Give the backbone structure.
Amino acid sequence: MGGSLIFQNCLIIFLCTLAVWYGKHHWDRRRLYMMAKQKPGPISLPFIGGAWCFINKNILDASVGLQERYGSITSVWIGQELNFFLSDPEDLEMVLTSPHAYGKHVNYKFVKGILGDGLITAPVDKWKTRRRALAPTFNQKILDGFVQTFVRQSETLVKKLETIVGKGTFDSFDYISRCTLDIIFETEMGLSINAQHTEGQMLEWANSAFKIAIIRMFSKWYSNDFLFNMSLMSEVFRESKRRLEEFTQAIVDRQLEAYRKNVAQEYLGDEPKFKTFLQLLIELSEDTLHLTKTEIREEVMTFFIAGSETTATTTAFTLLTLGIDLTVQEKVYQEIMDVLGSDRNIVYQDLPKFVYLERVLKETLRLFPGGPLLGRSVTSDIKLKGCTIPGGSFLTLVVHHMHRNPEIYPEPLKFDPDRFLSEQVSKRHPYAWLPFSGGHRNCIGMKYAFMVMKTVIANIVREFKITTPYRDVGEIALESQVVLKTPDGYPISLQKRD
Ligand code: HEM
């Protein structure tokens, strides 16, 4: 009798505590509830909120669908988190230049599990110091020094492609991603991993770890640490991550030791000397930043991951757009012949002269932006034209939708590089084209990416005519795996030019 009374009392106390906690939780969040009502969005269900919109859907299509249905500012509860989906250039400018939205979306935590506090996923305080210190390592003089590597690796790619000329349609992605991987690795760490000639385990580990991080980002079950840790996938993730880290750390440690012993640094054979990103980072760290070995490794991995996959997909998409529009391809070819002729190697002074190719790349990035959805967290209120985004909420910037908005880009599915003639650009809002994001936390590697892509594409187009089974860019299915990809590969065929 006494025991059951104690149990009853305990139960009552427990339920009262729960009710008080629940009441306080909602009271504290009353402002968020109120602010969510400023803008329309999908109906909220208990526990999951509007997350039902994403269940069994391609996240990119679901995000674009929200914009089409509810307008350029959509409010959505995803579980307990208030999210705003945005795609108006003026709003994007306000957000990307606001100090209250420097932090990344909570969803980035799975990528952070691999990249740690590297620049992309760094907490705001660390990011500010590092970004300031790292920006000069991407200056033009340093980048010009890398061009010899871009040229040598893209020539290897051309030789590889020569072996499949006339053999029908193939997926270009594997070839290109191995080339960009070799380029990034060499300019970043001063070593060749020879991914174009070997099986490239580094690529395998990185792909495997990232694939799992992305599954976790979008899965209701695997985003839960407990359920994930019970799964077989967690074993594969840990193993890939461990190998990736060990491999990169060994290189970092060796170069750090060489620097500290003041030993001649490890450059590439007899090539003219240039400082790699890792060497610059080590110098910075010893002088001012005082990074630990782990922090250096995280930064190196961040640049390697951020730089190789994005550059590879954009290059592969460009080969598709050139294969679809043969007139544009011919103009690119003419420009290459005008600048280089038929057999001179590219030197860094040539790259700014590829102005038409640059427009082609910009138009490709409009249709296929590397980062189609960008996520931020909001620490204090940000005032937009039509509403106030409250501190404590999250933002998804639907760049892909903005890039295909017919009010900004008439006939959005038409591939037209002349949209990027300066007189056309000046008619648009400066934030209407954001493949590299914008504001203070934009892509630090944009110039580097353009230089790599110009070199690789110029070398391919000079040697081959490209065709693809696609007839129109609108036929290419898309999905966001953090980086924008097509699930159907990048099919092209090559024919040697006379
Ligand atoms: C076509 C190629 C590329 C595209 C489309 C691209 C796109 C982007 C985008 C959209 C962001 C913002 C991400 C976010 O806000 O979550 C970003 C950030 C970044 N990118 Fe790139 N990127 C490219 C190439 C590169 C290259 C070649 C490197 C380095 C070698 C690089 C390094 C970085 C880094 C370190 C950041 C984080 C910057 C910061 O938070 O301060 N990217 N990039």
